[in-house]
Amino acid sequence: MPRAYNMHKDAVLVDRLNFSLPPFVRQQWASEVSRTRWQPQIAAARKAYQNLEVASVAQGVRRAARKIISPERMEAVANEVAPLGLTLTPIAIIKSFRIVRVTVQG
Questions:
Q1: 103 three-class SS
Q2: What is the Cα 14 distance to its own chain's centre?
Q3: Which of 17, 43, 57, 103, by CA, is between 20 and 30 Å from 5?
Q4: pLDDT over 90 for what percent of the chain?
Q5: Is the pTM of this model over 0.85?
Q6: Secondary structure of 64-82 in the HEC alphabet?
Q7: What is 1-28 written as a DSSP string?
């Protein structure tokens, strides 16, 4: 059976390193004009998606949603979801990033 790819004749296979990088997101813009145009729209889309995740739990569409928040925001987020009949449950604390993974559930 033929391979689905062709290996370059000088390619070298390497072993993976014994560590992995933590997850990260980085935005770069081709120009200040692009940043000014798109950054607010991307931020608004991200916020709308996060709100829909919580709303879908509140409406019973799904059982839980996962969020990543700073430890300082835990009480505020818990107070935001409480009127919807939802609770916040920490599932992981990532000290190196000072973030907490939580589930929002009904």
A1: strand
A2: 30
A3: 17
A4: 37
A5: no
A6: EEEEEECHHHHHHHHHHHH
A7: ---SS---TT----PPPS--PPP-----
